[in-house]
Design a protein that fits this description.
The chain is of the alpha/beta class and 231 residues long. Helix content is 46%, strand content 10%. It has a four-stranded parallel sheet with strand order 1-2-3-4, covered by helices on one side. Helix 4 (128-148) links the parallel strand 2 (109-115) and strand 3 (159-165).
Length: 231
Amino acid sequence: MLQQTTKTQHLLDMTHHVIDLSDLDNLDDNLNDILDFSSSSKNNLPPFEKAILINNAGSLGHLGPCMNITSLKELQTSLDFNITSSLWVSTRFVRSFSQQQQQQQQQTKTVVVNISSLCAIEPFKTMGVYCTGKAARDMFHTVLAKETTTTEEEEGNNIKVLNYAPGALETEMADELINCNVLDKDLHNFYVTSKKDKTAIMPQDSADLLLTVLMNDDFESGSHIDYWDLK
């Protein structure tokens, strides 16, 4: 992933920060380091024109029927990683750049992209924990959008939120589903066929489409947009 990111550097100044989003005990301190580094006022930098968060980290969690979940600890760990840390990252990001705007009295276009899924709006058997995480994240970011959307009569706070479902991608997560022997039969057949027929979406293609959406900036804040909605 780091190598792929570096390929896009070109004329950009890039720094890499690696943190463990599942480590809730140290999450705040780790985020402080990153957000302080990105603070234009603390680093004598001109205000950013745009700040974009791609909130993507996540895991599958328990696979198999919901009634077969046997470990409360593993369930809590999965939900903390997929929901709690994700919501907290978005919260801290928006608050940080909102405070910078107030201090510098200059507008920074702030965009939060929650990487969603069809699983956020449709139930899929044997993927209950994953669907729950995606649905919770979608709802939180939709509420965040409502709270930060202003009317034409109000002074805008320049924040937009997008729930973007990238489609079924050719990733290690897809391979994990293919190799899972407790996955719903129809789901398993879908992923096996996608792999065999090479019909799975390549991550770069979906990322390019997301970039187009962000550059056009004509989406409604809080909306859920799927890759296939745009094709």
